[in-house]
Amino acid sequence: MEFHLLPILAFLCLALTSHAVLPSEVYWNSMLPNTPMPKSIRDVLRPDLVEDKSSSVDVGKGGVNVDAGQGKPGGGTNVGVGKGGVSVNTGHKGKPVYVGVTPGPSPFTYKYAATEDQLHADPSVALFFMEKDMRPGTKMNLHFIKNTKEATFLPQSEHPIIFSSEKLPEILKHFSVKPESVEAQIIKNTIKECEAPGTKGEEKYCATSLESMIDFSISKLGKRVQAISTEVVKETQKQKYTIAAGVKKMAGDESVVCHKQNYPYAVFYCHKTQTTRAYMVPLVGADGTRAKAVAVCHTDTSEWNPKHLAFQVLKVKPGTIPICHFLPEDHIIWVPK
């Protein structure tokens, strides 16, 4: 599924050279001096450094395919994370159940519920697990998927149309998207999720530029912040990963998590709550591949939709236990230094 971005990329080709310093990079250095920029941000900021330079971007690709069983055939809870939905196998015989998130709402929003229609889509984006299982020696079958066609940030001053549901007809026309198409529904849903009010205790904002993401994160956490994302040494096939020694809790119990959305250019759904714990989790694959995965644990889920995917996968009720998930490689967490 593709959005054609010739107008955007034509501008970017004129504005950038392979070694040009972008205004966004200048802003990063001025607001966050001596702070490394994670690869997930570099990839959406510098399209000239992304291997695939085609004139379109795919919707719904990337993420983590995950089978979180305990190594026993038919046992455990299996959650597929990758391309357009979440496959769930709760240990019973038969085929996995597929919970679609494209073009439906994202499982990274607390209001998300796995509907009957979404129980038959393709696999997609999030592994949910219990905090007590995040310890050295725990084994999970993971498949980290690289995004080959990234939607990139536009310079803050060059957005073609205001990001608003009121401007939806103009947005579709600008990107040559037919109003009745699946792509149009995806664009509509992304804007709708961004405009909807957050749950109790959640402060949310959709960043359409790096500058606005930095501003929101600093406004919630202060100026001494850092951005971190999941990083995998290389792309591999699905394999068993073991949590290695060195699981590290990040500073404080406040964070801003920014989830990459499906849109013709980069848009991140950023939200801050005071009921999260974030960890950096070292993983070692069966073939020796190493990964540093960001895990976010939500300690209060009492305001979540009772039909949220996590509750169905883990067979628990809202507000009973902390629920954790890994962040895909193109998502970002901001934490205090």
UniProtKB/TrEMBL annotation:
Keyword Acetylation assigned: no
For this protein, the record's PROSITE patterns field holds: BURP
Q: Name one Pfam family in it.
A: BURP
State the superkingdom: Eukaryota
Q: Which InterPro entries match?
A: BURP (IPR044816), BURP_dom (IPR004873)
Coiled-coil segments on the chain, per record: none
Question: Which SMART domains is this protein grouped with?
Answer: BURP
Q: Where is the BURP domain?
A: 128-337
So which residues are the signal peptide here? Answer: 1-20
Which key words are in the record? Signal
Write out the biased-composition intervals (Gly residues): 71-80
Q: Where is this region: Disordered?
A: 54-80
Q: What is this protein called?
A: RD22
Species this protein is from: Vitis vinifera
Q: What is the lineage of its organism?
A: Eukaryota, Viridiplantae, Streptophyta, Embryophyta, Tracheophyta
